[in-house]
């Protein structure tokens, strides 16, 4: 079973360090545990799997299903790890032209869609919400089928930039915890994780994103933190990746916790800090956005879009 990481919130002072990546002045205690770092590496590999042309065995495990919506170009897969007893939902971030068009829809829309909470005034990026809606019901149905067959499995949702109508039965007891791991290099996984957690309230869930842009407003950020839990959210940011800060706060957007910022090279546990709150001024928000750049392409040692070895 998974355990929450210890409180590793020691602060450090940010500065510019050229010609290397921007970094922080830090002490040896400023990093995270090796165990947590290995988890970040593991799920970055799952996120990479969603970018491959074919992924028959994500991380050597069972491919339950792949999903794609041709209109929004939203795609990903659900995998099952019978050794770790977990289900992994991995979304691919925006890459195709259709996705790029959607990503320009910066208007905030009411949070409405398959499995999402109804009693909220939260608003999210219109394009991200539209992309989630195109596959959300499908993902929920697949998970329901898997829970019926494998009630003791954990579930994880992963990705790079989570139903009221499902009638799901209670599937866990005090002795067993089920986790959904949701991953993505983007924002769709965050909305999907909220949907999954709301649809399956007795299922444990962890959310991993890599290079996620700001996804919604302050109410949305608070909702994600409350429903999923800040200790179950791992929002990875690689040094000066410009995507996480590309959508400005002046448009009403806010990040949710909890950020894990690799602030310098090389990638290592001691070079990752667990940031405080949703917009920690000593985290990646301290660096002006430079848009989609080289750090966005590699997360925790893992090339995101060009590694077929994660699928065998």
TrEMBL record:
Gene Ontology MF terms in the entry: hydrolase activity
Record-annotated Fungal lipase-type domain positions: 88-167, 186-248
Database matches in CDD domains: Lipase_3
InterPro entries recorded: AB_hydrolase_fold (IPR029058), AB_hydrolase_lip/est (IPR051299), Fungal_lipase-type (IPR002921)
UniProt keyword annotations, A-Z: Hydrolase, Signal
UniProt cross-references to Gene3D superfamilies, sorted A to Z: alpha/beta hydrolase (3.40.50.1820)
Keyword DNA repair included in the entry's annotation: no
Any one Gene Ontology BP term: lipid metabolic process
Entry's transmembrane regions: none
Protein name: Alpha/Beta hydrolase protein
Source organism: Suillus placidus
Taxonomy of the source species: Eukaryota, Fungi, Dikarya, Basidiomycota, Agaricomycotina
